[in-house]
Amino acid sequence: MNLYRRQMLAAAMAITACCAGLGVAQAAGYPAKPITVIVSYPPGGDTDAIARLFAEKLGERLKQSVIVENKGGAGGTVGNAYVGRAAPDGYTLLFTPNPFTTAPMVLGLSPAQSYDVLNGFEPINQTAVQPLVLVANPKTGFKTVKDMIDAAKAGKTVSYASPGAGSPMHVIAEWLNREARVSIQHVPYRGVGPSVTDVVAGHVDTAWVTLGPVTQYFATGRLVPLAIGDVKRSPLAPNIPTLVESGYKDIVVGAWNGFFAPKGTPADVVKLLNGHLNEILKQPDVVQKLATYGAFPHGGEPAELGRTNAREYEVVGGIIKSLGIKAQ
């Protein structure tokens, strides 16, 4: 091999080594600036509070500012779409509950109009799960799901509140309506908080909500728990039976939340964030704080959140389509 060819080969090898090292250096240098976590709902709700808890803990571990920014609107699709269009560099993340998966179909939006639910994001971590609970105002006299169904079948007007059309709470209630062959009237609200306030006040008979905001009313008798929407009873409220126990074995709908990043975010960045979040979910103060929202830490590999999202799209999305649930 002549000198010229040896010099060219050495140069090519040096360039290859440099490029290979560059990817490692970029991953190792992340994050070099503040990270923004988008929450697609207004401040003050469970999603916002849990996002801020994780942002604080991530910031401590990454030694970098992690800022929560609220971009509400159109059932969460405004903020979700914003992240879907963001640069895939790990500096814009999405923290979202599971309406992320079904909101576009409820609103009748195509991927081009909103975002690609299944292929437009990199899953990072399914951080927590929250069981849904059916509660009643004590003045209704309902003690069980059967009481409520019997009243509806007897011709009594019965209503239920949900935090909005297409929410998991709306889906499970309409699924129960279909299976029980009743027509309990839907009263949609803009969030869990207002729906809880009105069922406590007696303006609406019942409500499907997450467990955290209502447990305080059980001991005082201001709300009566009727059923949990999960497959098993909740350790946070073991005395509340499930819909399965009440005779509706197929009706299981829960709530979950998690972190996503724009499609194309480097795998090393996703892996780094996933690892930190898994460690955060083991911290006793985080477990305790999540319990106040009726939530349990979940965690796992990014692919697990991907599978959860796909399953939600197929199962809950199928129920939404079969029931004709649309934004109101």
TrEMBL record:
Keywords: Signal
Keyword Phosphoprotein: no
SUPFAM superfamilies (UniProt xref): Periplasmic binding protein-like II
Signal peptide (residue range): 1-27
Organism domain of life: Bacteria
Gene3D superfamilies: Bordetella uptake gene, domain 1, Periplasmic binding protein-like II
Keyword Signal carried by entry: yes
Pfam families in the cross-refs: TctC
UniProt record similarity statement: Belongs to the UPF0065 (bug) family.
UniProt name for this protein: Tripartite tricarboxylate transporter substrate binding protein
Organism: Pigmentiphaga daeguensis
